[in-house]
Amino acid sequence: MDKFDFDKVIDRSKSSSVKWDSTENVFGTADVLPMWVADMDFQPPKAVCDALKERIDHGVFGYTFVPISVTEALQLWLKNRHGWEIETSSVLYSEGVVPSISTAIRAFTEKGDKVLVHSPVYTPFFNMVKNNDRTLITSNLIYENNRFEVDFEDFEEKLKEGVKLFILCNPHNPGGRVWTRLELEKLGDLCVKHDCLIVSDEIHSDLVFKPNVHTPIASLKEEFMDITATFVAPSKTFNLAGLQASAVIIQNKELKNKFKEIQQQQGFFTLNAFAIAGMEAAYRCGEEWLEHLLDYLHENMKIATEFMKENLPALKPMQADATYLLWIDCRELGLSDEELKEKLLYKGKLALEPGTKYGEGGEGFVRMNLACPRETLLEGLDRLKTAFS
Q: Which CATH code is given to the segment(s) 18-45+287-388?
């Protein structure tokens, strides 16, 4: 038997799980299989659990700081996985990527400034811009040949409006696109040309399927590094979102100090004891586990895609380069977004994310989380078939 047992079904109910215990609050019914919010139904690598147990066994949980060994583990991980060598001095820590996006918006822009995002995209991008009283500017991605592409002409036109900050989702959520070096160079060159800073959310960077390769945009050119804040975390990769640990990489000292100043205004000083232990163990010892996970997730993607091709040909799942999230085009069904939701919830008993949640361009789509044991996946696909049969 494989020593990494991703087929094991773990009961996550009554564990304060957002996915499993908040479904009724979010969808209005609890009688559904939740395949929505982006966490996995797998236990993390044994080394992470062992590190957490060792920390618990120590028994004293006083004030903590992030030791240099965590930064060294992160540096080694980024170098080995993504060919990116970063300086120790460029690293800060945060409780999560979304709080970091909010902090960056406050640090790098003023109220009323224009912030550009692609659409559709991860919902908190929109929320953090609006909640911080900035002006949201969107550039719609082009959906072509079952794939998202950047509309570079529109992107530059939006930059010309005086945009101060661009928030990049790399790899893209919900579409699973891994942006190519050429695409990233075009985006970066346009931001340099129009004096626009970049925040790059690279939380899914480790969940990339071969032969695709993740490229940190800041790694491409010195001038990109100078205008970019990159956010990474072990949360998606190793299913550690509940530990609340992420890293911020800012090479430009002035930008880093601005970011740090806002953190200090918010009273943020360090990661908690378990975030420290879990992050270091994941980055030092999690690579073999991750390779097996990627094989399992890729097989889940193939199973789901083939199932829809054979049983639900009107559904067109986008081929994901990365993530465990399947973006499904349901428009051939001829249903409104409300009708899609009703059929999924009350006929199929299945909770998926509505595409409209991700902004303009998401109409007629749904997002399905496939990071679950095969047994759960097959049940979810059967429910999907029931919903639209």
A: 3.90.1150.10
